[in-house]
Amino acid sequence: MSMQIRDLSGPAPTPDWSVTGTQSMGTSGQARVDIRITGRVTGKIDQGGGTDAVRVAVWDDGEEKDVKIVTVPLGATAVIDVRLGFSGRYETTAGGIGITVVHGTHAGAQALFALDPFFPKDVQAGAKPEA
């Protein structure tokens, strides 16, 4: 799993939040969910050291499955690009998965973006992932 921050000091398109993902299914019944979340963030809340913390998480059936914390300098605007994932099938209880992006390091912090439900595309294991 990785994350990137791109500097937007020059003119650039302003992407909305984008979520893509796959659920790969193996022949033995094993599954993996891989999600990619990208979006534009401006550092507004000093979380210490002159940076804002942005928490990106994926949820399934009320359980947080994976999370990344990204820092953005105060006053700077950047595009974050985060990959999250988990082993197993999604949608075992409720339909789809949830994506949350918040200012800060705690799940209940100020919301920047939320998508629930999101339905990853089913692919066969070994197929090239889109996420």
What would you note in describing this structure?
The chain has a single domain (3-7, 15-123), classed as Immunoglobulin-like (Sandwich), CATH 2.60.40. The strands form 2 sheets. Strands 1-6-3-2-9 form a 5-stranded mixed beta sheet, with no helix packed on it. A 4-stranded antiparallel beta sheet has the order 5-4-7-8, with no helix packed on it. The protein is elongated, with a radius of gyration of 16 Å. It is 0% helix and 58% strand. A hairpin with a 7-residue loop joins strand 7 and strand 8. The protein is an all-beta fold. The chain is built from no helices and 9 strands.
Question: Which keywords apply here?
Answer:
58% strand; five-stranded mixed β-sheet; 9 strands; mainly beta; four-stranded antiparallel β-sheet; Immunoglobulin-like; single chain; 131 residues
